[in-house]
Give the backbone structure.
Amino acid sequence: MSGTNGRLIEVTVPHLAESLVSATIGKWLKQPGDYVEQYDVICELFTEKVNTEMPSPIEGKLVKIIVGEGETAAVGEAICLLELPAEAGREASVGSGGHQEAAVQSGAALAVSGDQSMRGRYSPAVHRLAMDNRVDLSRVNGTGLGGRITRKDVEQFIASGGASASASAGFVSSSAAAAPSSAPAAPSAAAMSAQQANQPASPAQAAPAVSAQEAAAMKQAAHTPVRSSGLHLSANPPTPLIEVEGQPSDARNEYFIDVTPIRNAIATRMRQSVTEIPHAWTMIEVDVTNLVVLRNKVKDEFMRREGINLTYLAFMMKAVVNAIKDYPIINSVWAVDKIIVKRDINISLSVGTEDSVLTPVIKKADQKNIAGLAREIDELTKKTRAGKLSLNDMVGGTFTVNNTGSFGSILSYPIINYPQAAIVTFESIVKKPVVIHDMIAVRSMVNLCLSLDHRILDGVICGRFLQRVKENLEGYNSETQIY
Amino acid sequence: MAVITYLEAIRSAMQEEMQQDDNVFVLGEDVGKGGVLNTTKGLRDMFGEDRVLDTPLAESAIVGVAIGSAMYGMKPIAEIQFADFIFPATNQIISEAAKIRYRSNNDWSCPIVIRAPYGATGASALYHSQCPESVFFGTPGLKIVAPSNPYDAKGLLKAAIRDADPVLYFEHKKCYLALSADVPEQDYIVPIGKADVKRQGTDITVIAYGIAVHYALIAAEELAKEGISAHVLDLRTLQPLDKEAILEATAKTGKVLIVHEDNKTGGVGAEVSAIIAEELLFELDAPIARLCGPDVPAVGNNPPMEKFFLLSPDKLKEAMRKLAMF
């Protein structure tokens, strides 16, 4: 270098245009030894896109041409060396020299440091390798950052035969080190078996040799709180969307069914009904012999024409609806300071399924004849059992008819479908010896049971109502029109 | 074999496919005179104005026309002059091209190729530097390729043109003239959906695509002198990702560095990282590392900003060394 103590700077090929990667030197306009000002043109550059003159980026003395005329250099590559004037050069050299020193130092520090802070931090790969090959990691030399044992370190340790040596001696300590992870499982298993031993051994318990996990699961299930008494029954239980059956309990002679939303709704409404409504109950016996004759006469024809079964329920419904027309107070609701009497007669029909009971509504039942009611009953029961009832099918009921006879009952004490005023059941039709005009006859008899809201209704009005239903039912004969 | 550039590889793929199949045609802004980047140079002289179609400055129309003609059995190659301007066509690509097969229950497909020169070359600033691949990355129904060398560029473009579904072909502008290699003159394709190991190594794995692969290879050569052995996987196809290759390359070293020029957040690397984390926890020997563009819109025009933003072999070398030392 020269005696001016200046610093050498590389002049590089500038990025002249989009997608340009190299340029060819045309003619050098300055020669080594020339002093150039900033922006003095030093050479020509030819590229695929443009030909241009290359201005000097800095002021200084051209000391060396690196890329000759006609030669090509990539963008960023040096084409010549300029020597900075002494003062600027000293400044630059101090600045950048200091920088480099620092970098070197930090690099060296990393390489030879005794930092072992990461010695005990194992990556998943190191853990797995050590487990698979029974390597005692405390014997492995860590070359990673902070003394970390890398996957390569373990691999090298295994390759050098370290693993087999540690398998006999070293693995003991390794397994001891690994113990904490499996430790929580062990005591619980021990506790369980102890607990089982203390309990009076039921056959079910004694038989299987349960694993630790199963035992833990059983223990948890046993701790699930079961509500059977107390104030909490007035609170709503959590209602999961799915039914979960059969968690094992301790005694194994019972199992749990989570309360489904629909079961919860039934429970809530029933509790509300029996706690809010003072129920009274009465029953009446009806001779439906003529109705049986009538139905037997028309049911096959009806089945053929309509495609649906003509049930006794349709006749019962008609009898009830007509009786309500005569005693509208039956069709009412208790509103504390008033009694609301509903003009529309919308009959709720109790329909039972395997696990619930629903009450779809026959709207404006007073405007339908027997055939119409039969059709509506058929449609609603089918929808109920298929689980296809809409919300609209369920609302607006003013009085409930319950066909308990369908499952053979002859006597019921129904709970009123809140907030209605009464509910009637239609029991089984049974042939009985009946005294008529001091003679014993075989007649088809049925019981009607009525529960009533004693706040609204009393015995006389309900007796009259039931008498009217009875008259209506007994009034059917073989001439009755069902359309 | 002939030594050709990445740019020439793309041009020769289009030329050969147009010779083989009369249904293949090119459309885009200025493609007739070769386009601003010269990719289609000479094609109009060979195939005429009907097959090298100059379009107005309307990207939604370019892709829309391509989709429409594909419906009629044509095989369009739509050129978006710079990938930065693909966004007006995004609705056509994501809402239409990507979904035609699905919504027609396999009755229709959309065999279009959209070529999008992307990435920063330096001194081009915001609107000629962006990497928009992550915008399309999460759209099922699209295939996305991003070759890193002339051989792959030609083979993947041929595969894309022959593919029955829409393919986005991201060509990095910095590769155009900077990379050249021996490319066979006979017909060949590089299958879509297959990644490629560009360098075998044992210490660290670098997963990259586009120009970053090139940088990784340079950095790997230099690091080899320091005793660090880098395994370099080129994704080549971004959608669908070659999961097996990613997992295999990761398992090889247990230390992964994912590199791309696109922004770090929500980029392709994020998905690659998630795949590794989901499938390969017990092979990992270091946290999965990413070296990507910073989360700023695009590269600035001034040299310090460019240097800050852009990937370089030096930046890769540093990140790779750091990972190797972990």
